Amino acid sequence: MQASKRRPYDKVVLTAPVTIPYTRYSVESAQWWVGRALKGLVDAAGIKVSDIDGLCVSSFTLGTDTAIAMTQHFGLCVRWLEHIPLGGASAVAALRHAARAVEAGDADVVACVAGDTNHVDSFRRTLEHFSRFSQDAAYPYGAGGANASFALIAQNYMRTYGVTREDLGKIAVSQRANALRNPHALMKAPLTLEQYLGARPISDPIHLFDCVMPCAGAEAFLVMREDTAKSLGLASARLLGTIERHNAFSKDPVQVRGGWAMDIGDLYGMAGVKPDDIDVLETYDDYPFIVMMQFEDLGFCKKGEGAEFVRNHDLTINGDFPQNTSGGQLSVGQAGAGGAYLGMVEALRQVLGTAGPTQVKNARVALASGFGMINYDRGLSSGAAIIAGASS
Length: 392
What we know:
Thiolase family protein, acetyl-CoA C-acyltransferase activity, globular, Peroxisomal Thiolase, Chain A, domain 1, alpha/beta, Thiolase, nine-stranded mixed beta sheet
């Protein structure tokens, strides 16, 4: 394990994991979902709204509102504020920024919240305005949305490293098995490998069960100093290490790795742990092949060995390599930017021992990763965080 050049966190903790149960469609606004998450944080921590003096918000469907508008909507008066529009990397970025804020004393209690609504037509409208690259380089050719862009990346990745749909199917099937134990998961039916392989194609090689289902929902957690959590009587998890990277490996003709690969030594060096020390892994899972890519880039196997790694491990809650124990976005649903928080909130529950039916036995150290902001040939943002329960 190499030493990290980054300064470790000084007794920064996460606490009060909150999930606002998802629905496929909602007539409510994104502001309503964010507000419910904030109320959930106040209730879970036993604090007053006025105790929150830092706020970070991520959402795609707030319209012209940003985090500053949320302060007035919900009666907050904060001295530290962030609005992070990084898609699937938002939770890691929020945690990193909030952690340094509470270290510095710029805030004592930071609420990190992500949520989105899903009206019948809101997902299409979100895609229309997602990025200028997509509007200019993909949409004019009839390739609308992420599926077509990720299909090109998936084709190259699978061809380069000998990955089969059966390999990717094992990831999807394992996550569905985990989701069946999660009361918040929208996917309630078992998924077999045969069903996965026989599902209708969306954009070859991506088929139906490779795709996340848009929905409405919210996720949240609090960041504070350890002494603050103790004074409030809150069980908390220590923040051991984080990384964040944008536009990594830009000269790769097609993406086969994410920014994690650039900084992984720093992550483990900062945390003082090795990949073998991770008890539970929560990867960002907009597609199964992105999960496999993270197995490689996060140091659990070498580049190109992801398929073999999947074949040799049980990825379910009771398996030898439990990952995406909630079911992940593939089987819980993707609540917009809330999808970035899904793994972080689940990781926090795991190390606190409060995950209930999805709990991994003796989970003490967890890694949660993020990935987001595809234009047309790669995801631009990536990050990861390692957290630990009190007894680790």
